[in-house]
Amino acid sequence: MGNWFEAQVEEHGASIHAYLARRTVSGVADDLLGDVWVAAYSARSSYDPSLGSARAWLFGVARHVLHGYYRKEYRKQRLRVRRLVDRPIDETAAVDARLDAAALGPALRTALRELPAAERELLLLVAWENLTPSDAAQVLGIPAGTARSRLYRARQRMDERLAGSGQTQDERTRQEAER
């Protein structure tokens, strides 16, 4: 099992790190990656290849570690509420900061925020992490058919919102340059 685990770290380490980096502020992903490998190593006996790929299982572990990090950060934030402006940590802020679509950036960010959280997470797992809908379903703990239908709805909503902006790419670019 040790050799199997080492192979998974080698094969999927960069992808898991990128997943964490896109969802956190600078520097946190390195620490979280270590937590992912500790958690995955501890739970390696629970991995069942008949339920899906090791990659999807590792993304599930990473997602669990990431949510634990944000729960901890939220608790810290709540403790500081008396001294700071009350604003909860926004998990999508790290995602927003890294969007590399200058012309569609504002409309894309708005459309992503307006998606239900379950659809948004599924869409990001498929689009950014290159997981199949079945693997993303495994990460999220939902049936594959549910994932496919949610993904279809998410894509439809994104298309509607982005098409509904009513601006050409040139108009959006010009508007951004003026700001």
What this model shows, in words?
- The protein is an all-alpha fold.
- The protein has two domains: 1-98, RNA polymerase sigma factor, region 2, helix turn helix motif (Rna Polymerase Sigma Factor, Chain: A, Orthogonal Bundle), CATH 1.10.1740.10; 100-179, Arc Repressor Mutant, subunit A, CATH 1.10.10.10.
- It is built from nine helices and no strands.
- It has helices at 2-22, 28-42, 54-79, 91-97, 105-114, 117-127, 133-140, 144-163, 169-178.
- The longest helix has 26 residues, at 54-79.
- The N and C termini lie far apart (55 Å).
- It comes from Kribbella aluminosa.
What can be said about this structure in brief?
The chain has 9 helices and no strands. It is mainly α.
Contiguous uncertain segments of 5+ residues = 82-88
Structural class based on helices, strands and sheet pairing: mainly alpha
Terminal CA distance reads 55 Å
Supply Rg: 18 Å
Q: Overall pLDDT, averaged?
A: 80
User: In total, how many domains does the architecture comprise?
Assistant: 2
The name CATH uses for the topology of the largest domain is Rna Polymerase Sigma Factor, Chain: A
**Quick one: biggest sheet?**
none
User: Which class of the largest domain in CATH terms?
Assistant: Mainly Alpha
Q: Could you give the count of β-strands? A: 0
Number of separate helices: 9
| Approximate helicity band | over 70%
Give the overall shape, derived from the CA principal axes: globular
Features:
179 residues; mainly alpha; Rna Polymerase Sigma Factor, Chain: A; Arc Repressor Mutant, subunit A; 2 domains; 72% helix; globular; RNA polymerase sigma-70 factor (ECF subfamily)
